[in-house]
Design brief:
Length: 94
């Protein structure tokens, strides 16, 4: 736990001014830390995605097998009454 988080956790009980004084942080730095929490969380999530090898929240591209199945289904139903949503195949290739 960092000092800012400690201030945030205990601020209702002891007050920001007192905690910042005891922990040796400026109040303006604490308020800046609190104001930018959402930005920090977004950066951490993006960093985690890079580490995992994922990019954003995009769905994966359909596989060749999935595209072939859709093409075959469209041929069977030329009226266009079929709509598709691609999902990753579960259980791997069979």
């Amino acid at each position: 736990m960092n000092r800012f988080q400690c201030v945030a956790d205990l601020q209702r009980r002891y007050g920001v001014k007192r905690l910042c004084s005891i922990l040796g942080v400026s109040r303006s730095s604490f308020y800046y830390w609190r104001r930018t929490a959402a930005d920090r969380a977004a950066r951490q999530a993006a960093d985690q995605c890079e580490k995992d090898g994922t990019v954003g929240l995009r769905e994966p591209e359909p596989s060749r097998e999935q595209r072939d199945v859709v093409a075959e289904a469209v041929d069977l139903c030329p009226s266009g009454a079929i709509s598709f949503q691609f999902r990753p195949l579960s259980g791997g290739a069979s």
